[in-house]
């Protein structure tokens, strides 16, 4: 087993794929949308059956690898950090808001219900308008992945993470009150 400088993590194919998982997920989403907009003509061929299943496994596998990668330090990620991360964080405020919205159950459930509803709508009425709506909602996942990746990389400079309210000020410590009577403590 080979270790990187400092012995931080083993060099494995899973680690490398985990590092590039956001890009692989984006490519898989684009491929799924392309397959949905222009389906394979013969729906009974082996390719028409295995390609969607393969895409599903690619999405699930890369998502798992991305989550594992995000739990460790990565030299490649650290070397790609911007020189002035606070300026970069100021540019990505919308992405930070989207990443933090993922912690709200109502928003997540609503988004998932919209994904399921538009999939059902396309299966019931596969016209051009429903396919465009389906493609737009599927492609919105690309921004979610970009938001998550940006937040993970710039989390120390995220204003929502610093104090919960967008401020990075420390709460002043209130000293304990002095005893009210003037007796000497033993």
List keywords for this structure.
9 helices, mainly alpha, 186 residues
Summarize the SSE layout with pairings.
Elements: H1 13-19, H2 21-37, H3 46-69, H4 75-79, H5 85-91, H6 93-101, H7 105-124, H8 128-154, H9 159-163
Helical fraction:
55-70%
Number of helices: 9
Main beta-sheet annotation = none
What is the beta-strand fraction? Answer: under 5%
Low-confidence stretches: 3-9
Structural class: mainly alpha
**Number of E-state strands:** 0
> Shape, please?
elongated
Task: Give the N-to-C terminal Cα separation.
Answer: 64 Å
Q: Helix and strand string, N-terminal first?
A: HHHHHHHHH
Count of spatially separate domains: 2
Quote the average pLDDT: 80
**Radius of gyration computed on alpha carbons:** 24 Å
Description:
- The protein is built from 9 helices and no strands.
- The radius of gyration is 24 Å and the shape is elongated.
- With 186 residues, the protein is mainly α.
- It folds into 2 domains: 1-75; 93-156.
- The relative contact order is 0.11.
- Helices cover 65% and strands 0% of the residues.
Question: What's the short version?
Answer:
With 186 residues, this protein is an all-alpha fold. The chain has 9 helices and no strands.
């Amino acid at each position: 087993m080979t270790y990187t400088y400092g012995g931080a993590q083993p060099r494995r194919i899973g680690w490398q794929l985990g590092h590039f998982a956001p890009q692989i997920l984006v490519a898989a989403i684009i491929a799924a949308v392309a397959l949905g907009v222009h389906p394979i003509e013969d729906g009974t061929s082996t390719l028409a059956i295995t390609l969607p299943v393969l895409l599903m496994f690619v999405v699930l596998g890369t998502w798992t690898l991305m989550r594992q990668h995000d739990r460790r330090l990565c030299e490649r990620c650290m070397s790609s950090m911007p020189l002035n991360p606070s300026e970069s964080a100021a540019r990505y405020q919308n992405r930070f808001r989207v990443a933090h919205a993922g912690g709200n159950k109502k928003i997540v459930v609503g988004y998932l219900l919209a994904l399921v509803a538009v999939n059902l709508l396309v299966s019931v009425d596969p016209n051009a308008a429903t396919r465009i709506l389906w493609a737009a909602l599927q492609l919105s996942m690309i921004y979610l992945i970009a938001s998550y990746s940006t937040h993970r990389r710039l989390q120390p400079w995220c204003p929502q993470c610093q104090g919960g309210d967008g401020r990075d000020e420390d709460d002043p410590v209130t000293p304990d009150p002095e005893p009210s009577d003037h007796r000497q403590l033993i």
